[in-house]
Amino acid sequence: MCLQLAVSACAVYAAAKGPVLWSTALALKTEKLQQEDRMFCEKFHMPPGSESFPMCVAYLAEVRSLHGDRVAADAAGVP
Questions:
Q1: pTM score, whole prediction
Q2: Res 1: pLDDT
Q3: Which of 9, 24, 49, 58 is 20 to 30 Å from 42 at the Cα level?
């Protein structure tokens, strides 16, 4: 009985706070990616506002995507 109440309380809390926590996490992730984009592209003389910055960011997005594919394949046991 006590365990059921605890699980129910956790479920209610998650239902109430879940969307806010998800939104906050997404905003933090977006901010972190933007910081990485700026740091990396500036290192290679493509700062924000330059003509080459959008292309640099696009290449980084592609690299991140390919890395995500490799991580997913590794997790699935695919060589």
A1: 0.69
A2: 66
A3: 24
Q: How far apart are CA 10 and CA 14, in angstroms?
A: 6
- Confidence band, pLDDT 50/70/90 cuts, at residue 21: confident
Q: How far apart are CA 29 and CA 36, in angstroms?
A: 11
Report the 10 Å Cβ neighbour count for 56: 21
List pLDDT tens digits, range 40-68.
Answer: 999 999 999 999 999 999 999 999 999 99
Interhelix angle for 53-75 vs 2-43, to 10°? 140
Q: Are 63 and 53 in contact (CB under 8 A)?
A: no
